[in-house]
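Exercise (ungraded).
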Amino acid sequence: MINLNKEITATPLPPLFDDPLKDFRAAGLKRYSLSGLPGKKVEHWMKFDITPLKEISYTQAVKVEKPLNRNANSFDEICDRVEMLNGFIDTTTVGKGYSLSSVSTEKGREKIAGLIGTAGDERGNYFYNLNSSLFSDPLLISVGPEQSGKPLYLSERISGEDESLIANPRIIIEVQENSSLELIQSFSGSSGSPYLNNSVTEIILGKNAKLEHVILLEDSHKAFVFNNIFVKQSEGSVYNSQTLISGASISRNEYDITLGEENCETSLSSLFLGKENQLHNSDITIHHDAPHCTSRTTTKAIAGGNSQGVFRGFALVKKGAQKSDAVQQFKSLLLNDTCQVNMEPHLEIWADDVKCSHGATVGQLDPNQLFYLQQRGFSPEEAKKVLMEAFAADVAESIGIDLVSDIIKTRIYRLMDDLYE
Amino acid sequence: MLNVKDLHVSIGENKILKGINLEVNPGEVHAIMGPNGSGKSTFSQVMAGNPAYEVNSGEIHYEGKDFQALEPHMRARAGLFMGFQYPVEIPGVTNIYFLKNSLNAIREAKGLQPLDAYEFNEYLGEKMDAVGMSRELTRRAVNSGFSGGEKKKNEILQLLVLNPKLAILDETDSGLDIDALKTVAGGVEKFRNKDNAVILVTHYQRLLDFIPPDFVHVLMDGKIVLSGDSKLALELEARGYNWVKEENGID
């Protein structure tokens, strides 16, 4: 049993290899023993209360030997697939161009040991440390210039019965020089009990590499999901991501992007559709470490029910990172008096020749727009829906993977139907 | 068609309309004129059912129905169109999506089949030509970044597309240059027939040069203080509103 209020011990990899990751895990455990999980008084965590997930005794998720029935998915036909079940590699169906490595081979162990921590170690804290102590079956996806021609669908699923599971999936994605990848990463689960999925994805982009990344957080309403993504970009690389948050009881997206060399571009859009008692925290940090890099952050939230969203964006422009261009935009729409949204853009600039801006708005549906639509025959429900769709349109339209953009747009608009009463 | 009796309306503590009576029949054009702050826009908004205004007393009957019992979209579906003085910008919603869904909602209420994309495009094309609007405007978000003139033309385009029974045009002429005014007036003239009716709410005579009204009403201090034919509009243009105020003892 794992209780996050108490000390934890690291689990060895199953089966017991001569484990080249032993030292990494031990270092993670040491970090975790010092950091623990943040309390309410810790800056950035004050408005995001994680007490409920600390109060549960978790069972460490284990590999599911018998494959589970899995519902057919709209991505099946059009995508290569890698599935992680309870933090373990389950099935993989990929075309040419990918090299997948796990700890089941010596070569895989060596490759993973050589890359793990590259993007995360310098930046990660609390939940990253927890993952580094407890991760089970790390997966390295390496993409070279040869292409399969299909997007990759990476599904992280949690499945359990009565116990509360904790899983710590660990994924490393390496897009090599002059290579590109389209990735759809989804978080979902079916379990009668609350579970904690604490996932770490480290992304390493080589020179002129490009990653289009769609992230779907669609867990059950009892789930706690911590999606920690660390991106390290090399010269001329491009990282674009769009995140849709519609599931989980308590969730957090931590995105930490390092623009480490010149001429990197990064663009992150996210949309939170909050209902019932959902609590979501998004924390995006972009490190402008080198000159001539561009970053765009668009964060949108539509909150209904008693949902709460806490959104923080932080662009840190290092001394010498001249001609940095960073824009952060936060917009939220509150559908009633009982939901809450907190949006905090931050900039810290140590260079003197940069273009940086940020803005945040919190509002309600505009009564003038609603009336205009109704005067043209739209029912009040249709009018609300049209305006919510319009609010989310730029995120929905920004989906960079053409093959799945319609599927995801439809999904966004369908999810909105649940938001207004 | 429209029958308004002793209508009293307020916003918060402010009483705006203080007993309006008006009857509009098919085939008629009515002009409601009056100085700033007399309640002209309030009248339009209340006819359309804007929830920001509170009807204190009085009756509004439309084709025999109690209009006050109908929500704004039901009034629209029953054939009422209001041209907005300040057409609302709706970023993120394309004009074509807006027009198509609006038309089909109203068609459905009339028991007609919705138009499919092809039929709608054909239909819309004709109407756009009638108001001289560029096709490119259909792909843009509703009124977003439109010039003042484009917004008003867009209102007239909607009038022609939706083809209501009763059109209330709230200062559709304000802020237009003479060419745009002619286009707008031309659109209204195309719309008019013996079965529908138009209420023009305006400050100025000049729109009425193009669309001669059957009746002119002067609204002042929340009441219609004077009604007449189109000659009244000319007199107001020449003499202003002060003489009406004096004759009616309004400060």
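Further reading is listed at the end of the chapter. For now, observe: The radius of gyration of chain B is 18 Å. Residues 72 and 151 of chain B are 21 Å apart (CA to CA).
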